[in-house]
């Protein structure tokens, strides 16, 4: 049995030690937003209540909690990004494009990157056979193209969990990058030429879901994690570094958490770093790594 991408037959090309981000910046930061939805009748696996309901009972509390994202959270996040002049990489499920096309269209029109994030959070590639996974990739892509008029170039699976077929299918469908891996800080290339994908690892260190929901930390803890990581890269390393700062529309799209996302933007802008989208980072890798 394969172990997924790490056991694939694709060659791997890592960035050189001399690699730098656009503008010759040593450190790159991407501000990510997760704008997520679940299939009809499906419930988020993680919710604000610590005690799950008995099997067979629909958790309306968790469903309502997740629905905060499109009702209030995403608008607040877009406002914060706008007043700080930062473009984000926004992970969007196909079901969100189905239900809220005007919001998804507005995100694209404001210049943010749309990242394909499966049809719904409960549709995880590793659970699907090859045909079902290909159907899911195409369904998700078609919905995002129909809504925005643009084809997404990147894919991040729910839970960041691909199948052993995901890389091959994404290459086949014309994607240029994937973010499911966490085995490096910096980008690398799987495969060669047209038969390749840039891997842009997704770092979970500065993320509202594990910090604020799973472990019940105050929002300020996420800001501290951001500060610690940035300071370490600035003071203790000489090579390139990359950071992800990520919020979910239904988690830190709320007043108690959004201020942290904005404060991280302000601190990043004051530092000597490159700030951009994942799509921009991948284009830079393609142009500079041979």
Description:
Helix content is 40%, strand content 15%. Residues 1-7 have low confidence and may be disordered. The strands form two sheets. It has a five-stranded mixed β-sheet. Strands 2, 3, 4, 9 and 10 form a five-stranded parallel β-sheet that branches. The chain has helices spanning 60-66, 68-84, 94-99, 101-109, 130-148, 166-172, 208-214, 220-236, 255-270, 278-288; strands at 12-14, 27-35, 89-92, 113-116, 154-155, 177-178, 188-192, 195-199, 241-248, 274-275. With 290 residues, it is an alpha/beta fold. It has ten helices and ten strands. The longest helix has 19 residues, at 130-148. The chain has a single domain (4-42, 53-288), classed as Alpha-Beta Barrel (TIM Barrel), CATH 3.20.20.370. It starts with 11 loop residues before the first strand and ends with a helix. The relative contact order is 0.21.
Poorly predicted spans: 1-7
User: Which class of secondary structure composition applies to the elements?
Assistant: alpha/beta
Strand/helix succession: EEHHEHHEHEHEEEHHEHEH
CATH topology: the name is TIM Barrel
Share of helix among residues? 40-55%
Q: Helical element count?
A: 10
CATH architecture: Alpha-Beta Barrel
């Amino acid at each position: 049995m394969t172990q997924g991408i790490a056991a694939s037959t694709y060659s791997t090309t890592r960035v050189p030690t001399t690699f730098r981000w656009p503008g010759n910046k040593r450190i790159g930061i991407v501000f990510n937003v997760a704008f997520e939805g679940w299939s009809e009748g499906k419930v988020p696996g993680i919710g604000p209540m610590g005690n799950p309901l008995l099997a067979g009972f629909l958790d309306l509390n968790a469903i309502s909690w997740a629905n905060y994202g499109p009702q209030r959270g995403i608008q607040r996040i877009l406002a914060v990004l706008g007043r700080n002049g930062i473009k984000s990489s926004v992970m969007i499920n196909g079901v969100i494009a189905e239900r809220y096309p005007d919001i998804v269209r507005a995100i694209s029109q404001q210049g943010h990157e749309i990242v394909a994030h499966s049809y719904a959070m409960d549709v995880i590639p590793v659970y699907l056979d090859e045909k079902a996974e290909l159907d899911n990739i195409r369904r998700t892509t078609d919905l995002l193209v129909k809504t925005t008029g643009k084809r997404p170039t990147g894919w991040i699976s729910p839970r960041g969990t691909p199948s052993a077929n995901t890389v091959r299918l994404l290459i086949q469908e014309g994607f240029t990058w994937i973010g499911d891996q966490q085995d490096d800080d910096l980008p690398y290339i799987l495969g060669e030429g047209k038969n390749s994908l840039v891997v842009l690892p997704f770092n979970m260190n500065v993320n509202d879901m594990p910090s604020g929901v799973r472990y019940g930390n105050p929002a300020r803890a996420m800001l501290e994690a951001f500060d610690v990581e940035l300071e370490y890269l600035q003071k203790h390393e000489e090579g390139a570094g990359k950071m992800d700062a990520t919020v979910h529309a239904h988690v830190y799209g709320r007043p108690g958490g959004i201020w942290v996302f904005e404060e991280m933007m302000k601190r990043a802008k004051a530092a000597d770093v490159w700030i951009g989208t994942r799509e921009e980072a991948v284009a830079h890798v393609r142009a500079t790594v041979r």
